[in-house]
Structure formats: structure tokens, C-alpha cells
Amino acid sequence: MKKITVIGAGIVGIATASYLRRDGHDVTVVDKLPPGEYASFGNAGILSPGSCVPIAMPGILGKVPGYLSDPMGPLKVRWPYFPQALPWLLRFVTSTGLAQVEKTADALISLLSQTFDAHRPLAQNAGCSDIIRQTGYIVVYDTKQAYRNDALAWKLRRDRGVVCNEIDADAIAKLVPALARNYECGVYLPEQGYVTNPERLTKTLAAQFQKDGGVILQRDVLDIEMGAQGPQALLTDAGRLEFDTLVLCAGVHSGKFAAKLGDAVPLEAERGYHVTYSDPDLQLPMPVCAAQNKLFVTPMEMGTRIAGQSEFAGIEAEPDYGRADVLAKHMKRMFPQVRDVETTRWMGRRPSMPDSKPVIGRATQYANTYYAFGHGHIGLVGSAPTGRIIADLVAGRTPNIDIAPFRVDRF
Ligand SMILES: Cc1cc2nc3c(=O)[nH]c(=O)nc-3n(C[C@H](O)[C@H](O)[C@H](O)COP(=O)(O)OP(=O)(O)OC[C@H]3O[C@@H](n4cnc5c(N)ncnc54)[C@H](O)[C@@H]3O)c2cc1C
């Protein structure tokens, strides 16, 4: 059995550590924050193999000026940061060819279709299966034309076995009566799911990991110490930690560590926001996605959450809660009756790769180092499948999917 250190106690790090611990390894997770308090804290909670459609889609470039000029739009670039984001944005643009998009969707569906199968054993073991719901969700469009404009995305899903049922305005009203009748049509995805509290999921799995003998240390990782054979210890703000095997799950901060190990990666902070209504007085039987605004409204145990937005401003820039206010305005349009007396706003950093695929696999130069980061918009749905793959690799088992599309040196 190996002495393994995992950097990062987000959902990816905790799911990975949990699968490694199930194999009997001596596993330590190191994070400067308590588990689940960074990007994994406040996401929309969607667990969906239907998320196999990449963000970089043919024609997206033509939509960008409209997104940027619309104050209610889903995209914002802080112009002083633009030169730094440019190389990533150019790679994003070169990922939008149809052939590549088809391949990306193939890779993503292979990973994401395992989400329930990989999450459930962890949740069952931790006694928190109640957090995972498989109610399906709906995606709604203001106009039939807007739906037709998304035809390729729906074809990509259907071609890969995702059940997507077209619904009209009356069917939308039956499924989610509280939703305003602003929408001409939509799609119901009955097999998809969500979690009712992403933070509690990560924290509960983390607590179970510790009960099962894993260790979590709250420390800032400053550097990786290299020995003759490669990485051998972490240098932290509270001393040195030796390991046999290292797994990097540091979300958007993974780039600097991967670069130190010889694997420079295009990783960008794609910042998103949420507003959570703790007393919304709203009955929501399932999540609702407003496709044109690229946001989800999800019923959660702490209230109702609206989440979305993509902001390019770097990792450290202060949040611009004006982006959350945009979400709140959309919420009022979707659910005019929502009670907004108690709300909280949040910003999180999606660790995004330009081709919408995470990095999963071994470091190019070191046999004792593995990567599991860059999950972008799909870190919750992709976390447990990723963790299971990393455990397979560490154990010398062949993962049950082809992981070549996720290799770190694909760019
Ligand atoms: C608004 C929004 C909505 C989203 N909705 C969804 C959704 O519905 N479904 C979905 O699947 N995904 C969604 N996502 C994406 C998802 O939240 C992320 O992909 C996921 O949380 C990434 O998890 P992670 O473990 O890789 O990273 P993180 O949760 O960011 O964890 C990384 C950890 O590494 C630690 N770390 C970094 N550097 C160091 C260091 N030097 N020393 C010590 N610790 C360090 C950090 O403190 C952090 O805890 C959404 C994201 C946002 C922002």
C-alpha cells in the first residue's frame, strides 16, 4: 500500500482520496481551507451526463459580442485581464471545430455517464445518499427559434444516449408550475440529477474519509520538493510532508504545480456566481436551466439557488457582485413571486481548460504523480468518476474508460 498525498479538498480531491482510501492506501489530503469551501462550495449542484456538450461550440465566437454588450448577458471579461486570458481564449476558439466537438462530447459522456454509479457508493458509505436526487431537470427557451439555434447541442446529447424530451409551454407549466410562462418550449431530461447541497456533500464525504482512516491537514502547500526520482515531499506553511505518490487536485491553483512538474497547462479561472434564497417561498420539483442565459435554478436544502455567469478576471481579483445581481434579476423574471428577503451571494472559480475536458492521468515525467484537475463546469458531476479512475491508475488497474482524451500533454 502506498503513502499518498492529495493536494486539494474540493469535491475532486475528496472523491479521489475516498476512492484511494477504499483501496487501503495511507492517504493524506492537504488543503489550506476546510473541505469544500472553494469552487466546490456554491455550484449549481447539477449531476448530469447531459453536460457532455463542450462550452466551446461551433458558432460561439459569433455570439460573444452579443453576450459582452448585454448587461444581463452570461459573459464578462475584465479588460485589464484580457491580455493574460488571450492565449486561453485563442485555444478555446480553436476547440470549436465540429470534429473536435464530437470527440470531446464522446470523451465527456464516457466520464460523466458514470456519475451516479461512482457517486452513490461514496454517499452511501458516508450516510448522505439523501443529498443525491435523480428527478431530471428542464431546460427552457424563450422562443422556438432559440431552441432551434441550439440544435447541435441537443443532437450531441441524443446521439450519446441522453434522453431529451421536447416539451411545449403547457408541459413546462405542468412540470414546474411556479415558473413564469415566458417560455415557448423546452426539453425535459428525466434521467439527470442534482445534489441538494454541494458543500455538505464534500464535507460529509471528507468526514467519512477521516473516519475510514484518512487524514486531512489544513495547510498551505508552498512548493513540491523534488528528489532524485521526482516529487518526494510537499513544503507547506507548517512543515514538510513526505509521500510515495502525489495526486494534484488543487482546482484552479493546479497550474503552477503542474508547471513545476514539467507539465504547463492552459488553465483559467472561469469565475461564476450564485444567489441563494434561504426563504424563497417557492415549490421547485426539479432544477430549471434558462438556456439563453446559461444559468440553473436549483432547489436546495438551504433554499433555492440561481447559479451561472462566466467572468474572466484572473484568480485573485475581487468578486464583482454586480454579476450576482444580474442572476437575481433573471430569477425575478423566471419566478416573479420569489421571496428575496434573505439572500446570500457567492463567487467561485471554475478550473477551466479551453477544450472543456479535465486533466486526468499520470504526469508526463513522473510515475508517482497523478493529475485530477481542470473540470471547469463539470467538477461535481465528474468528480467521483475521476476519483475512481485515479484509484485504478494508482493500483495498476485499467480504468473502465479510455483516458487518452484527458491526458495532460494533449495541447
Ligand atoms: C457558479 C458555478 C456553478 C457550477 N455548477 C456546477 C454544476 O452544476 N455541476 C458541476 O458538475 N459543476 C459545477 N460547477 C463547477 C464545479 O463547482 C467545479 O468544477 C468543482 O467544484 C471543482 O472542484 P475541484 O475539487 O477541482 O476544485 P476546488 O473545489 O476549487 O478545490 C480545490 C482545492 O484546492 C485547494 N488548494 C489550492 N491551492 C492550494 C495550496 N497551494 N495549498 C493548499 N490547498 C490548495 C483549495 O483551497 C481548494 O479547496 C460550477 C461552478 C460554479 C462557479
Provide an overview of this structure.
The protein has 2 domains: 3-40 and 200-265 and 356-406, FAD/NAD(P)-binding domain (3-Layer(bba) Sandwich); 56-106 and 132-194 and 267-352, D-Amino Acid Oxidase, subunit A, domain 2 (D-Amino Acid Oxidase, Chain A, domain 2, 2-Layer Sandwich). It starts with a strand and ends in a 16-residue tail after the last helix. It is globular and about 65 Å long. It has helices spanning 11-22, 60-69, 82-94, 98-112, 115-126, 144-149, 151-159, 169-175, 198-211, 254-260, 322-334, 379-395, and strands at residues 3-7, 26-31, 46-47, 75-77, 132-133, 137-141, 165-168, 185-189, 193-195, 215-218, 221-227, 230-236, 239-242, 245-248, 268-277, 288-290, 295-300, 303-312, 343-352, 359-362, 369-373. Strands 4, 6, 7, 8, 15, 16, 17, 18 and 19 form a 9-stranded mixed beta sheet that branches. A 6-stranded mixed beta sheet has the order 10-2-1-14-21-20, sandwiched between helices. The protein is α/β, with parallel strands linked by helices and 411 residues long. The site of flavin-adenine dinucleotide has 39 residues, from helix 1, strand 2, strand 15, strand 19 and helix 12.
Q: What would you call the shape? A: globular
Ligand names: flavin-adenine dinucleotide
**Broad CATH class of the largest domain:** Alpha Beta
Oligomer state of the chains in this structure: single chain
How far is it from the N-terminal to the C-terminal residue, by CA?
A: 33 Å
Q: Spell out the CATH superfamily of the largest domain.
A: D-Amino Acid Oxidase, subunit A, domain 2
The largest β sheet comes out as: 9 strands, mixed
Please state the second-level CATH architecture of the largest domain. Answer: 2-Layer Sandwich
